[in-house]
């Protein structure tokens, strides 16, 4: 910017976007002073470097506003985990379904894990049925992103909000 530009010649663009041509740095700085604005290097790698006459403070302000706007529009989600067992009772399951509904309404993903202990691994069909029941109950709030699958002694299914 201004005096910090250390090249002999630059291509100058005025505030309206018109090219003033390739000028010695002294003339470019004089043209910027004539407009009452700053000479800002916008493309230092070009040959010769491109400089634009603009209000640098306003330019920086607009850039930060654009970044804030982009950050505001970003969506973030978390993956919440609900753990159940093959022998989980109906009332406990309804409670867990309520928690899942709340998570899905907040646009979070839900990872449902059925844990098998000891000889319960023989009840894998019951675990799969339990996950199917959960998927059916959550049908209006979520879509099944990952179908039930085994990982060691656990069976996992992931639900994503609609």
From TrEMBL:
Keywords tagged on the record: Cytoplasm, Initiation factor, Protein biosynthesis
GO cellular component: cytosol; membrane
Domain Translation initiation factor 3 C-terminal span(s) in chain numbering: 78-162
Record flagged with keyword Protein biosynthesis: yes
Translation initiation factor 3 N-terminal domain segment(s): 1-70
Gene3D superfamilies: Translation initiation factor 3 (IF-3), C-terminal domain, Translation initiation factor 3 (IF-3), N-terminal domain
Main subcellular location: cytoplasm
Family indicated by similarity: Belongs to the IF-3 family.
Entry protein name: Translation initiation factor IF-3
């Amino acid at each position: 910017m201004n005096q910090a530009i250390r090249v002999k010649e630059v291509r100058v663009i005025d505030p309206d976007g018109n090219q003033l041509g390739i000028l010695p740095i002294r003339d470019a700085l004089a043209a910027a002073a004539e407009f009452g604005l700053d000479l800002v290097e916008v493309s230092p790698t070009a040959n010769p470097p491109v400089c634009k006459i603009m209000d640098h403070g306003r330019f920086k302000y607009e850039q930060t506003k654009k970044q804030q706007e982009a950050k505001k529009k970003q969506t973030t989600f978390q993956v919440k985990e609900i753990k159940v067992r093959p022998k989980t009772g109906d009332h406990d399951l309804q409670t867990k379904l309520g928690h899942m509904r709340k998570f899905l309404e907040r646009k979070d993903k839900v990872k449902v894990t059925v844990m098998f202990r000891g000889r319960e691994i023989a009840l894998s069909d019951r675990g799969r049925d339990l996950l199917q029941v959960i998927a059916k109950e959550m049908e209006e709030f979520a879509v099944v992103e990952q179908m039930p699958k085994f990982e060691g002694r656990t069976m996992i299914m992931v639900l994503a909000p609609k």
